[in-house]
Every structure is written in structure tokens, then in C-alpha cells.
Design goal:
about 140 residues, about 80% helix
């Protein structure tokens, strides 16, 4: 059952969702919250680091893994409506993504872990809700 769920994933849904996440992430972190993100990291007085291939492609690849996993979970639990897909998105968004974001930020290298999580929360929640909806609609 587990492995067959992966074979039933619609590649177009994964591609559309991955493209959305990449563009939305670029706009969100590049134009909407860069100042707040720097503050959350305690780097507001330091010039922004130059982007390299790892910082561009790394999150993209990780996002694809999360999208494929979400699509497989949708198949495994039998999501049959858009409301179910969005509910799953909220569960994953709050229960995993936001909780993991805060878990990662609670260490001495993040001076403002709660602020960091609040800066990242809209990106994670919007991304997983869009992913869940697109994956359901293009199933």
C-alpha cells in the first residue's frame, strides 16, 4: 500500500506545486520579508549573504520531497474532497512544518526563535495549503 501510493502520484501536480513553491519562496523571502528574516536571525546589521546554488536549489529539492510525501499521504489516507485536502494541509502545516521550524530555531544560534517562526509561518502555511489543493485537484 505504501509504495503503490507513490506510483499513483500525478507528476503534473508535483511539478505545478513545486513551481509555485519556488516562485512564492523567492517573492516571499526576497521581496516581502527579507528585513524581518534578517531581524529574526539577528543579522539586521550584516549585509545579506550572496545566493549560491545550494541556497537556491536546496530548498527547491527539499520542497519536492515534501510535496511528493504529501501526495503519497493523500493517496494512503484516501483524501476524497478539497476540504479534506485542505484539512490535511493544515495538519501538516501546523503539526509538522511550524512545529519543526520552531524546534530548529530553539537553539543558541537563533536569537529570536518565536519571531523566526512567525516570519516563516505564512510561507509554510500558504505553501502546504496550495500544495494540498493542487495535488488534490490534479490527482
Amino acid at each position: 500500500m505504501v509504495f503503490s501510493a507513490f506510483t499513483q502520484i500525478n507528476l503534473w501536480g508535483v511539478l505545478v506545486t513545486s513551481a509555485f513553491g519556488f516562485v512564492f519562496g523567492g517573492v516571499y523571502y526576497g521581496a516581502i520579508v527579507p528585513r524581518y528574516y534578517a531581524i529574526a536571525l539577528g543579522r539586521e546589521t550584516i549585509p545579506a549573504a550572496k545566493l549560491d546554488m545550494l541556497t537556491i536549489l536546496g530548498p527547491f529539492v527539499c520542497n519536492i520531497v515534501m510535496i511528493v510525501t504529501t501526495a503519497a499521504i493523500m493517496r494512503m489516507i484516501g483524501v476524497v474532497s478539497l476540504a479534506d485536502a485542505l484539512s490535511l494541509g493544515l495538519v501538516i502545516g501546523v503539526g509538522y512544518l511550524l512545529a519543526m521550524c520552531l524546534t530548529i530555531a530553539i537553539n543558541p544560534n537563533f536569537p529570536r526563535p518565536f519571531y523566526y517562526t512567525m516570519v516563516n509561518a505564512p510561507y509554510f502555511l500558504v505553501s502546504i495549503l496550495v500544495a494540498s489543493a493542487v495535488l488534490f485537484l490534479l490527482r
